[in-house]
Write a structure and sequence with these properties.
Elements (H helix, E strand, L loop, with lengths): L33 H10 L7 E5 L3 H4 L8 H4 L9 E4 L1 H7 L7 E5 L1 E2 L11 E2 L3 H6 L4 E6 L6 H18 L3 E5 L9 H13 L4 E4 L5 H7 L4 E4 L6 H13 L4 E4 L1 H4 L4 H14 L3 H12 L7
Parallel strand pairs: 1-2, 1-10, 2-3, 3-6, 6-7, 7-8, 8-9, 9-10
Antiparallel strand pairs: 4-5
Helix pairs in contact: 7-8, 9-11, 9-12, 11-12
The structure holds ribose-5-phosphate (R5P).
């Protein structure tokens, strides 16, 4: 029991200062509950409104991808520079120290390996487990136009229903099949579908006319890095995406397959959070990487 309030100091109710009622900083996310917003607020930096998410969930269908043969050796040194880690619960529990205070986005879908039809995914994780490991979001792919389009859409909507019950945001990932045209028209369709179906954040690929993609999507978009590019090109892509309305990157290979991954993630951070021009960020990359310019 607290003791009785017998202070002689006059109480101050600050009656001249109305209580603030600020909108949540992420677009389209103002009407969620406290826990839901708190999770998003751990993924996205509330100052810049953006995130550098480090994606290394590739093993869930690709096995030990180049650069991810030993995530304990290649990924853990990068973790301090990421705002959030996108990974599987298997790698989380086996290799990530619980003391690492980073937001996590858990891959929640799975099924086929690279040997089979990739769109034949199902939800492969119970929401209770995401809560148990204190995840900040869960992710599933939507294969718009793919062989199992409807199944993947139902994966998303089922995950959103389960997430809404416990305050867990869902990251909808637009998976683009090998034979699909990766252009603004397709990406607008796929990202908007993810948002309409309840994804709180959407991950997609950068394409020309990206500002129309971000404009047509009512929730934040983060871009995947895609296949490994020369570092300057990857920084230019991140810069263009941010300038055209992306709320960050969810980048994997262009960071962990870089010749100097720590230098690369530091450079990406500058582009994402500080609007640094890609050429300047590349100079930083070279300085931190101690590489010769022609090698990058
Ligand atoms: C792909 O299936 C994985 O979910 C990755 O998270 C995603 O592709 C982003 O990684 P990257 O930047 O290597 O494309």
């Amino acid at each position: 029991m607290p003791e009785a309030d017998i202070s002689k100091v006059e109480k101050n109710y600050y009656t001249d200062q109305p209580q603030k009622n600020e909108a949540f900083f992420l677009k389209g996310c103002n009407n969620y509950d406290w826990g839901f917003k708190n999770r998003l607020g751990r993924i996205f930096n509330c100052e810049s409104g953006r995130t550098v998410m480090l994606a290394f969930d590739h093993g869930y269908f690709q096995g030990p991808t180049t650069g991810l043969e030993r995530p304990d050796i290649t990924i853990l040194p990068l973790a301090p520079y990421a705002d959030a880690l996108m990974l599987t619960r298997g790698i989380l529990r086996s290799l990530i120290p619980p003391s690492l205070a980073k937001a996590t986005v858990l891959r929640a879908s799975g099924g086929p390996s690279i040997l089979k039809e990739l769109s034949n995914e199902h939800i492969a994780m119970n929401m209770e487990d995401a809560v148990r490991v204190n995840a900040c979001a869960v992710a599933t792919q939507v294969f718009v136009g793919g062989e199992n389009e409807t199944q993947s859409v139902m994966n998303l909507t089922n995950l959103v229903d389960a997430g809404n019950r416990v305050g867990m945001p869902v990251l909808g990932v637009t998976a683009v099949g090998k034979d699909m045209v990766r252009d603004a028209k397709y990406i607008r369709l796929a990202t908007r579908m993810c948002a309409e179906l309840g994804a709180a954040v959407v991950k997609t690929y950068f394409v020309p006319e990206f500002e129309t993609v971000t404009a047509a999507c009512p929730v934040p978009i983060v871009i995947a890095g895609g296949r490994k590019l020369p570092e300057l090109d990857a920084l230019k892509m991140a810069y263009e995406a941010i300038q055209q309305g992306a709320a960050g990157v969810d980048m994997g290979r262009n960071i962990f397959q870089s010749e100097a991954p720590v230098a690369m993630i530091k450079a990406v951070r500058k582009v994402v959070h500080d609007n640094m021009k890609p050429e300047q960020a590349f100079e930083l990359f070279l300085a931190h990487a101690n590489l010769k310019r022609h090698k990058a």
